[in-house]
Design a protein that fits this description.
The complex is a heterodimer of chains A (288) and B (315).
Chain A (H helix, E strand, L loop, with lengths): L16 H28 L18 H8 L1 H32 L7 H13 L4 H10 L8 H6 L3 H12 L3 H9 L4 H12 L1 H17 L2 H6 L8 H10 L12 H36 L2
Chain B lengths: L17 H7 L1 H23 L6 E4 L2 E4 L3 H8 L1 H32 L5 H12 L6 H12 L6 H8 L16 H25 L4 H9 L4 H25 L7 H4 L7 H4 L2 H10 L6 H30 L5
Antiparallel strand pairs in B: 1-2
Helix pairs in contact in B: 3-14, 4-8, 4-10, 5-8, 8-10, 10-14, 13-14
The chains are: A mainly alpha (288), B mainly alpha (315).
Chain lengths: 288, 315
């Protein structure tokens, strides 16, 4: 982030008209972002659907959330999302650390071949249909594990991981080798413990991608027990396919409560992990 | 990728024969094996599937048709419309998002209060972490013509419009709304890369400008903006390579009534394959192959452009 300007004590800068305009402009900008999110949040607790923007629910209720967690049709996709996101992120991290570590061995015979082998997948792809046909062969159509398989390998993240590893001083490897460590031992005794920040950033990137993936489910899955929450949410809102429920809940309340559930994990984690999120982008953009 | 020799693995082994060297690195080859198999399975195997673009592939009936699929494709009005839409939608979206992100970065960088700056950043990054499905759901509800539609009812209560507008089903309104929604979702996050550049500007440049009597706007014009220009070009180049890939942002918002202005190549492929009773996988693979090839050319062109601008490629 931008460097903090050194403020000399006692010599506080006087705010000019320009500064006040900036405050107003950015207050409006923040409101543009916040108002829709706040409206979604408040309406999810509001028993009756209102068009107005409210600061607080006029008729508070938890029925929307209770419905989601007691209706199999909504809860099952939610669990699917949680499970695929966790497992997919772990798999993604295993693959990108292994690949990144090997790619970082510049003296290894065949290292360039491996590099081209990986980079070619970024230039050319089979396309939606050949991919679909392959996944069908692998038995991943109508199967929620497609989310894990499809996102468990990401060449871009692998290269990011390699860039992070490049920052580890070579002398550490040298010392470990003299102590008789095998490559695998160096990997998990030295490289991984030193890369916690990288693991957090890239892990978050995997998690966001998998949790938020909607189109993969749209293409590959029709079986309602296998879909993820993003898909179920969209089907419910777009097609008006509301599940029958024991709770008296208005359609609007249920819609907005589902939206909140779909964004909640990252909205809650985000303020604490913001730096990790940003770091991933910067390393990718600056170093590549 | 930059070459470094920080791992120190090589120095002593350089004199050994290739066989010995490979033996030294045996552990690494074994570690790469899972990645190799994975990449072959999900990236390279589908590449073999592009052969179907020369076949007719309906249900179980697969037979060779030569270039028929491509002849059909090039004669298809619907395809060219989708192709044109893809370019228009992607490029306008890219330019708009980048432009607004640059403006925001420049002026947010002028904020005196560090706390306010951080606060605004935290807020504007937020929508990036929502999925397109969620964002589309939110705005579909807001823009709906029902009695709970936020936008229409608010505009009506202010007396700006007399009857509800069906924004997402209107051919004239769809694209502007699409661009606005995308601006809302992605511009904030787009500023991250520009902030990284801004934080690298030497403060002495600003001091020198102050001594020369430059006003704040002049400093923006002559110090901040030139520093960003390289980054702007890189962002444009990197994204230019991907303009044809657009799928999810359009897919979650488009509908049959605005197909004319919203159908892109990927959604065209999707409809022809998954919304057709007896799809011809051969034909849709051909469309995909055409898209991949154009994308490939764009990617290589971007790579060359990137090498010119910053001395290294994007690959």
């Amino acid at each position: 982030m931008a460097k903090e300007k050194v403020v000399v004590p006692g010599k506080k800068k006087k705010l000019t008209l320009f500064d006040y305009i900036l405050y107003v402009v950015f207050a409006i900008l923040s409101l543009i972002i916040i108002v829709p999110i706040w409206k979604v949040l408040i309406d999810s607790f509001n028993a009756v659907g209102v068009y107005k923007f409210q600061l607080w629910p006029s008729d508070p209720t938890f029925a929307g959330y209770l419905t989601i967690f007691s209706t199999a049709k909504l809860f099952r996709p939610f669990v699917n999302s949680v499970v695929t996101t966790i497992i997919g992120t772990l798999l993604g991290l295993v693959m990108s650390t292994l690949g990144g570590y090997v790619l970082n061995q510049y003296e290894m015979p065949g290292r360039n071949i491996i590099s081209y082998f990986l980079l070619f997948t970024m230039i050319f792809s089979g396309g939606m249909i050949p991919e679909y046909l392959v996944m069908k062969r692998l038995g991943l159509v109508d199967n929620m594990w497609i989310l894990v398989v499809k996102h468990g390998m990401n060449v871009y993240n692998l290269v990011l991981m390699k860039n992070f590893f490049e920052g580890i001083p070579g002398t550490l490897y040298e010392a470990a080798k003299l102590d008789g460590c095998t490559p695998m031992q160096i990997f998990y005794k030295i490289v991984l413990p030193l890369s916690k920040a990288a693991l957090a950033s890239i892990g978050l990137m995997f998690a966001v991608t998998i949790w938020n993936d909607y189109s993969t489910v749209q293409i590959y899955i029709t079986n309602p027990t296998q879909v993820n929450f993003q898909y179920q949410l969209r089907v419910m809102i777009m097609d008006g396919d509301t599940p029958t429920t024991a709770y008296k809940v208005s359609q609007n309340t249920l819609y907005y409560a589902s939206i909140v559930c779909a964004i909640l994990p990252f909205m809650v984690a985000y303020p604490f992990l913001q730096d990790y999120f940003v770091q991933g982008v910067n390393v990718g953009a600056v170093k590549e | 990728m930059s070459k470094t020799d920080n791992n120190g693995a090589g120095s002593r082994e350089n004199k050994k024969s290739l066989k010995q060297q490979i033996f030294v690195y045996r552990g690494f080859y074994i570690m790469f094996l899972p990645v190799l198999i994975y990449v072959l399975l999900i990236y390279y195997w589908p590449m073999l599937g592009v052969r179907y673009s020369f076949y007719s592939y309906k249900l179980r009936d697969i037979h060779w048709v030569g270039l028929d699929n491509f002849t059909k494709l090039f004669g298809e009005k619907e395809f060219w419309l989708a192709f044109k839409n893809t370019l228009e939608i992607s490029i306008v979206k890219l330019l708009l998002n980048t432009f607004v992100a640059v403006i925001i970065s420049i002026f947010l960088n002028e904020m005196v209060s560090m706390f306010c700056k951080k606060f605004v950043q935290t807020i504007i990054y937020l929508p990036h972490f929502m999925s397109y499905a969620v964002v589309a759901a939110i705005f579909t509800l807001f823009l709906s013509t029902s009695s709970t539609g936020f936008v229409n009812e608010t505009l009506k209560s202010w007396g700006w419009i007399s009857s509800s507008i069906d924004f997402l089903h209107s051919k004239t309104m769809w694209r502007p709304i699409f661009y606005l929604i995308n601006l809302w979702k992605e511009t904030g996050w787009g500023t991250v890369i520009f902030f990284a550049t801004l934080s690298g500007i030497n403060p002495e440049l600003y001091e020198a400008a102050s001594i020369d009597g430059a006003t704040r706007l002049q400093k923006i014009r002559y110090v901040t903006f030139p520093a960003l220009s390289n980054t702007i070009i890189i962002v444009l180049i990197l994204n230019l390579a991907k303009v044809l890939n657009i799928f999810e942002p359009v897919f979650v918002l488009y509908n049959s009534r605005v197909l004319e202005v919203s159908d892109v190549v990927s959604t065209y492929v999707y409809r022809k394959t998954f919304l057709t009773a007896v799809p011809d996988y051969g034909y849709t693979t051909a469309v995909g192959l055409f898209k991949s090839l154009v994308g490939c050319v764009l990617m290589l062109a971007s790579n060359v452009a990137s090498k010119k601008v910053r001395g290294r490629g994007i690959l």
